[in-house]
Structures are given as C-alpha cells and as structure tokens.
Design brief:
- By secondary structure, the chain is an alpha+beta fold.
- The chain is built from 11 helices and 8 strands.
- The chain has 2 domains: 16-92, Arc Repressor Mutant, subunit A (Orthogonal Bundle), CATH 1.10.10.10; 104-270, GAF domain (Beta-Lactamase).
- The longest helix is centred in the C-terminal third of the chain and has 20 residues, at 251-270.
C-alpha cells in the first residue's frame, strides 16, 4: 500500500505548473510591478514595519531600488513612514480589499451559525477561500482574548500545512488537484515533502469524514479543525474552520466532538443554497 507521501507526489507528478521566471511567458510580466507587490506582501500580523535595508535584504534588491519603489508606494498612499523612519502599510490599502469583500455578501448569512460554533467550542471560527497557493480568511467570529494571534479577515496561510488549506485542497478533483499540488511542490519543496503524509491524510479525511485537524502544523500554538463547504457561484472554494489555543484543546474532544459537529454544520450550510456541494458530498 502506498503511503501518503508517495500518493501526494504521484498526484503532483501528474500535474503541470510553470512559475514566473521559468519560461517564455515571463516576458509578458512587469518585473517592476512584481517588485512593488513583493514589498507589500512582506507585511504580516507579526511584522508590521520594515527599514529600507531590511526590505532590500529580504527581496535581494539594492537599497536605491527599494527606496524608489517605496516612495512610489507612498505616493500612491499604500505605504507610510512612522516617526522612526520605518515603512508601514497605510490605511488606504484597505480600499483595495473592499470590492473583494463586498462581492462575498454570502458570508454574512453564516455569521449567526458561526457565532454559535464559536461559543460552543470557545474558539474562533473562520471562513477561508483558496487564492493561488494560499488560503485567505474572509470572515472571522469569536473572542480573540487569550488567542495567540489576532484572527481578522485578510489573514493568509499555506494550503499544504494548515487545516483550512487542506480542506480547500479536498475540494479539487482530478487534473485541477494535480496541477495545484505540482505548483505547491515547486514553490515549497521542503515543506511539501515534510507535510506530505498529513496533507494526503487530511484530504482523504475531509472526503470521508467531512473534516480534518491540524496540531500546530501552521501556527505551533494553534489547534485547528476545518471542513470543506463547496464552491460559490463565482468560483470561490470555501472552507469553514475553527481554531483553539493549544493549551485549551483536548485531542479527544477535538477528534470526537468538535470535528463531527463542524462537519454537520457544513452540511447544514450547504442546505442554504450558497455553495455548490463538493463532488464527494
């Protein structure tokens, strides 16, 4: 019997993927625009400010190029300088996300049931969608007190080493799944191999039991559960997830109580007609 790592690599072998810079299609891309966006992508809830030299080091650019790019982003209103001279994201950048959030009005219909799950689990409940090689949270409900990070819409995470990401991967079938796995293996070769067994097992579990779990695979101090919901009319794959601080999570409760409840909630959500059900449901 093939193990999970072997199966996942066989699926990735059957996929096709070409990253920017690896083929002729690179001529159609704007390298200057990509560098500017890479600067914005450096920021996270854990790193909210950068000096010019640090940006240059992270991206392998010279300081003059970074200075020019940052001045341009400041002119556009997407970066600002704090009193110490560090570059920070400016509030105007939130305006870029508004049209995306406004197009996901369906999430508001789920806030009430999500709040019930959050109260029952004493955790934070989120809706995540697939975007490229990551998931993006578009709705969060719960109490962030004593939570290791601030659960807000806009948080991104890896598909291949998180409960949300693996639940989203389970929604892909055939060549679409193979191509996505080929992309993940090409972008993150070491992480892909290290988490291959768990990723394969989680995809299979989502399809058979309706949920998967993750014990610190993405954030070491978080235990997470996730269930695939389906696909929206405009093509977004969506997963429902619940996160708990690790010190508060009992494995028997997570596996035998919270997991099945989350899967049952997903079945109820699908009956609302918002999502096209998964092919395995």
């Amino acid at each position: 019997m093939n193990d999970g790592r072997t199966i996942l690599n066989q699926w990735a072998d059957a996929g096709e993927c070409e990253l920017p810079g690896e083929g002729a299609t690179d001529q159609a891309l704007s390298s200057t625009l990509m560098k500017g966006l890479e600067i914005l992508a450096l920021y996270s809830d854990q790193e909210d400010r950068f000096a010019n030299a640090e940006i240059a080091r992270r991206l392998g650019l010279n300081k003059a190029t970074v200075s020019r790019l940052c001045k341009t982003l400041m002119h556009m209103g997407y970066l600002r300088r704090d009193p110490k001279g560090n570059f920070r994201l400016a509030p105007r950048i939130l305006g870029l996300s508004y049209p995306v959030m406004a197009a996901t009005r369906w999430r508001h219909q789920l806030v009430g049931p999500m709040r019930e799950i959050a109260e029952m689990s004493t955790g934070n409940v989120t809706l995540a969608v697939m975007s490229g090689d990551q998931f993006v949270q578009v709705q969060t409900v719960g109490d962030p007190v004593s939570f290791p990070h601030i659960p807000e819409a806009g948080i991104t995470g890896p598909l291949h080493r998180s409960a949300s990401g693996r639940a989203l991967l389970s929604l892909l079938d055939g060549q679409e799944l193979y191509d996505k796995l080929a992309e993940l293996r090409l972008r993150f070769p070491e992480e892909f191999e290290a988490h291959a067994d768990l990723t394969a097992a989680s995809i299979a579990r989502c399809r058979s039991e309706g949920f998967c779990t993750s014990y610190g695979d993405w954030r070491p101090n978080i235990v997470a559960l996730s269930t695939p919901l389906g696909e929206t009319d405009d093509g977004l794959r969506v997963a429902l997830s619940c996160g708990l601080p690790r010190f508060r999570a009992r494995e028997d409760v997570v596996e035998n109580d919270l997991g099945p409840r989350l899967a049952e909630a997903a079945r109820s959500f699908r009956m609302m007609g918002i999502f096209k059900p998964p092919f395995f449901a």
